[in-house]
Specification:
Length: about 240
């Protein structure tokens, strides 16, 4: 398989016009070398140091390796879509994961990045599980959003201050997701508040337990860590 590495660039003056001359370390001319590439292969243009893929084409003539360190190398033809995460490593097109990087021509696992990535996922899951619906008195669905907690807290405080024992028309969803309006006692309100707090605390505890766990995992387990699956497992303990 043919490979061309740009070693030097020269401005060539030819009578009435100038053009960029592109040469490898043996002074081979890029424009002449193009005919040595197989017409059926995929040509990959990448940076020699970073290995980042700059362009790909079956037609070598459309590539423009105009910087020192640009490489054009051919491989067996395959469909390829250039993107900011596509690299050419040891003869293969590789799409790096966010937690991978290139070092000395090898794919290296960035453990710190992966841990921070998982922590962000766990934080989002904490919010999701904290706010999810729970069932009150086996027939009403109650969400646990910040708005719901604030409304409940304000109403409960108002009832206590006014020494009233009931609140009329608290909005729930029934088990079929229809809106229903229910009269609640102050004890009901306090019980709902307790359930809300317990759910929020459980979500926080679950997040904390998993944050501790990931610090103990080896690289392979960190790569394969499924935040949603692990959160669900910990939540159901």
């Amino acid at each position: 398989m043919k490979k061309f590495i740009v070693d030097k660039i020269k401005i060539i003056e030819d009578k009435d016009f100038k053009y960029i001359g592109i040469y490898d370390e043996k002074d081979n001319d890029w424009y002449k070398e193009q005919k040595k590439f197989d017409s059926e292969t995929l040509k990959v243009m990448y940076n020699k140091d970073s290995l980042l893929v700059l362009s790909t084409s079956k037609d070598v003539s459309v590539l423009a390796p105009t910087m020192v360190g640009d490489v054009v190398e051919e491989i067996e033809y395959q469909e390829a879509q250039v993107n900011p995460n596509l690299y050419f490593v040891e003869g293969n097109l590789i799409e790096l994961k966010p937690y991978e990087t290139i070092k000395n021509g090898k794919i290296v696992f960035n453990k710190e990045f992966r841990i921070e990535e998982i922590k962000k996922e766990l934080q989002d899951l904490k919010i999701k599980y904290s706010e999810k619906e729970f069932i009150f008195k086996e027939k009403y669905k109650q969400k646990n959003r910040e708005l719901d907690k604030n409304n409940l807290g304000n109403i409960t405080s108002m009832l206590l201050a006014a020494k009233q024992g009931h609140f009329n028309n608290w909005k729930f969803k029934d088990l079929d997701d229809n809106d229903v309006y229910v009269d609640l006692t102050i004890q009901d309100m306090l019980l709902i508040a307790k359930m809300m707090q317990e759910q929020t605390s459980k979500a926080m505890t679950t997040e904390t337990a998993l944050k501790v766990k990931i610090e103990t995992l080896d690289d392979r387990k960190l790569k394969d860590f499924d935040s949603e699956k692990e959160f669900e497992k910990e939540w159901n303990k």
